Amino acid sequence: MTVFFPITTPKRYIAAVLVTIICLHYLFTITSDGSGRTSPFSNISERTGERHSNDALSIPDYNNLQSYPNITGPRANATFVLLARNSDLVGVINSMQSAEDRFNRYYNYPWVLLNEEPFTDEFKERVSVLTRAPIYFGLIPKEHWFQPDWIDEDRARAGRQKMMAQRIIYGGSVPYRNMCRFNSGFFFQHELLQPYRYYWRVEPDVRFFCDLDYDPFLYMQEHDKVYSFTISLFEWEPTIPTLWKTVKDFIAEYPQYVENHNAMDFLSNDGGKTYNLCHFWSNFEIADMNFWRGEAYSAFFEYLETKGGFYYERWGDAPVHSIAAALFARRDQIHFFRDIGYRHEPFQHCPSGEQWTKGRCSCDQKDTFDYTQNSCLKKFEKLFA
Ligand SMILES: Nc1nc2c(ncn2[C@@H]2O[C@H](COP(=O)(O)OP(=O)(O)O)[C@@H](O)[C@H]2O)c(=O)[nH]1
Ligand SMILES: *[C@@H]1O[C@H](CO)[C@@H](O)[C@H](O)[C@H]1NC(C)=O
Ligand SMILES: *[C@@H]1O[C@H](CO)[C@@H](O)[C@H](O)[C@H]1NC(C)=O
Ligand SMILES: *[C@@H]1O[C@H](CO)[C@@H](O)[C@H](O)[C@H]1NC(C)=O
Ligand SMILES: [Mg+2]
Q1: Averages of pLDDT over each 10 residues, the chain, 385 residues
Q2: Residue 283 alpha carbon to ligand 5 centre in Å
Q3: Nearest CA residue ID for atom 14, ligand 4
Q4: Catalytic pick from 259, 285, 302, 305?
Q5: Whose CA is nearest to atom 9 of ligand 3?
Q6: Domain ranges of the chain
Q7: Is 285 marked active-site?
Q8: Strands 78-83 and 198-202
Q9: Does domain 223-385 have CATH number 3.90.550.10?
Q10: Element (H, E) at 89
Q11: Residue 116 alpha carbon, nearest atom of ligand 1
């Protein structure tokens, strides 16, 4: 990206130098993927200083951090994570803008964006401008994404055709299955996520309705939480016909991984015999990657993987994560973020009362999934009754 133009006057010369510096800086910014643009644990004043003094992207000057209390207080070992395609650009911008406006512009947790194809320069430019925090763009290793060779493709195809005939959403899609398997067993193994413990998962075209005046990552840490949600609901049974049987086989073989004070009653109305299809909607997650990296979940995912259900059926990362969190963690380690207003089409959670006012929420309090017919929130709350 060298800039050539005839230099005839000093004015032009200065302009040329400036343009070159800006381009070089910009090139550095978008190519320093994962190489540690700033340490995630450098303190805020260092960080804003760094980003501010040589910022060629003319990012608006939110230089008012002092007016936000606790901003220089303790930070969590945490990052946002967003899986997306290049074609998701506009949706990614919508989601990031919302997360930044309502929370992260004050906290500056890093962003890690992942894709099985390289992000385009345009994509990186358009999303980098949205945050003052470090942002990293990562490529997913092939073996973490694509359907493995040992999957019997004839059987997988038959499974897809059956689901298409049943008109199940994404029933015929192989990429969707790649995505579900990646989110179930691989994202937390990505090189760019190794430096972190907690993550906040964001998807394209989601919305955060309320200001958050505390750090949810620190909340997780301080309260020993491993998994959290805003919306819970019933799964589409035909996507997971043999999942529960597989879970029961796993439990029988590895009873040591099942936590005593688990949340089985969230998953089952008959003590584990059958699955009631309740799960946490995993397009929103704030959770502890060390739980996924741990012995119980690693063994669980490996067991599921060998059954091939991510491809022969269409096992989603939502039921897989939910079942694991409910069985291998204590029930009190799962948290409902009642004060985080959130929408992912076609459902939303809107806080109410004091939380709605305090959060300056932009959602309608009456439009909330919480206690509707297809919600599992009541079931979750009954665990603690
Ligand atoms: N890189 C990449 N990301 C994908 C692909 N399919 C889905 N995603 C991402 O995976 C997440 C879930 O996909 P989405 O289309 O939102 O599924 P839905 O929320 O279940 O309707 C989103 O973050 C998508 O951007 C894919 O083929 N490649
Ligand atoms: C934050 O960084 C500034 C500038 O480098 C330094 O003076 C200060 O001591 C740091 N504060 C903490 C809490 O590390
Ligand atoms: C953050 O967490 C990861 C994963 O547990 C760990 O490897 C890393 O050392 C931690 N970083 C800090 C600064 O504590
Ligand atoms: C900020 O810190 C004070 C104590 O220093 C605490 O009472 C308050 O809850 C904190 N606020 C947030 C938003 O974390
Ligand atoms: Mg989505």
Answers
A1: 39 54 48 38 38 35 43 87 98 98 93 98 97 95 98 98 96 98 98 98 98 95 98 96 98 98 98 98 98 98 98 98 98 98 98 97 98 98 97
A2: 6
A3: 214
A4: 285
A5: 195
A6: 223-385
A7: yes
A8: parallel
A9: yes
A10: helix 89-99
A11: 1
